[in-house]
From TrEMBL:
Signal peptide: 1-23
Comp. bias (Polar residues): 177-188
Any one cellular-component term (Gene Ontology): cell outer membrane
Keyword Signal found: yes
Keyword 4Fe-4S: no
Highest classification ranks of the organism: Bacteria, Pseudomonadati, Pseudomonadota, Betaproteobacteria, Burkholderiales
Protein name: TonB-dependent receptor
Subcellular location(s) per record: Cell outer membrane
Keywords for this protein: Cell outer membrane, Membrane, Receptor, Signal
Region spans: Disordered: 177-197
InterPro entries in the cross-refs: Beta-barrel_TonB_sf
Length: 333
């Protein structure tokens, strides 16, 4: 079986990981699983993709600049003093199972598992020490996130270069998990920011387009644009609409190793609702993502990427990662 055909079938679903963390524009990995850049319909049958992403948000940012916690603690917005977050460590494992009829249609199911540690100084700190009554808490949450069901149609021409993507994100992840208060004046459980929950509680519509082709015998590429928007609100919370634009190049001159690079851009509107952070959510980000795909056999490949930001413009004050690491394996059967 041609490995290129296996790889290309896992296409155009770049919003999978952003949906795992809605609290800020920089919370999710924007890496697209469209490693290839060729135009084939693929072989009929099932393909399994298992991927791990590590994302440590430990850098406070406002607008296009980094800021220190002391400066962040001085911010005051329309809802009061700015919350000063310490860190958010995210571990994502996502299992994707897709089916192709060998022609014009592909269907994919994606199930994420999320482990997240978060700590905040609340809204009454000096940037170093939390103050009484600031709502500070620590949390460690894990569980199944929001499942996606996607379809892709590539039958507009015999070359199958152009495709449309459509599907939905379902409200399968919990959005009511508690944290532990670190405020001595108010001990016990504490509510977690809605954007940090495993799920949003909403059903989202996903629409996108993709185009893939070969430049020559050694180089192939892909481009894609995808929009995700919530169709409803849940418990007075609605995540912001997001747009992802991605492109990638792959070098095919080596038999067993395929160097790749992606360019990922993401725009997210702020969250809305009485239980949403309407100030420090949303923004515009761009990344460069070099990686490699290693061919193990005709049916198995492994891959690894490092994603580094080249532009970050966030609303309010948000935690952002310095890099994101991703590894995975693909199996056709």
């Amino acid at each position: 079986m041609n490995l290129k055909k296996v790889s290309l079938l896992v296409t155009s679903i770049a919003l999978l990981f952003p949906v795992l963390a809605h609290a800020c524009a920089s919370c999710g990995c924007t890496l697209s699983p469209d490693w290839d850049g060729t135009n084939t319909t693929g072989q009929p049958g099932f393909k399994l993709d298992v991927r791990y992403d590590y994302l440590n948000q430990n850098q406070l940012r406002s607008g296009t600049s980094t800021i220190n916690p002391a400066v962040a603690s001085q911010f005051v917005n329309s809802t009061g003093p700015q919350e000063v977050e310490k860190f958010t460590k995210n571990n994502y494992v996502t299992v994707g199972l897709d089916y192709s009829n060998g022609g014009n249609w592909e269907v994919k199911l994606q199930v994420p598992y999320i482990n997240r540690n978060h700590s905040t100084l609340g809204t009454a700190s000096d940037g170093t020490t939390a103050g009484a009554g600031g709502g500070q808490y620590d949390s460690q949450t894990s569980g199944i996130g929001d499942v996606k069901i996607m379809g892709r149609y590539i039958g507009f021409s015999e070359t199958h270069k152009f495709g449309v993507l459509f599907g939905a994100k379902l409200a399968t992840g919990s959005h009511t998990l508690p944290g532990t208060s670190t405020d001595a004046t108010n001990p016990g459980s504490a509510p977690i920011d809605r954007g940090l929950q495993p799920g949003t509680g909403t059903t989202d519509l996903i629409l996108g387009v993709s185009y893939a082709d070969s430049l020559n015998t050694d180089w192939s590429y892909f481009t894609q644009a995808i929009v995700q928007t919530a169709l409803n609100s849940s418990d007075q919370y609605k995540p912001g609409t997001g747009l992802n634009i991605n492109g990638g190049l792959r070098y095919n001159g080596f038999e067993k190793f395929k160097p790749l690079v992606q360019f990922n851009a993401k725009y997210v509107q702020h969250d809305t609702g009485d239980n949403a952070d309407t100030i420090s959510t949303g923004g515009t980000l761009a990344y460069i993502s070099p990686g490699v795909l290693a061919v193990v056999s005709d049916t198995v490949s492994v891959y690894a990427f490092v994603q580094a930001p080249i532009y970050q413009n966030v609303r309010g004050v948000q935690l952002a990662p310095r890099y994101t690491a991703s590894v995975g394996v693909k199996v056709a059967f």
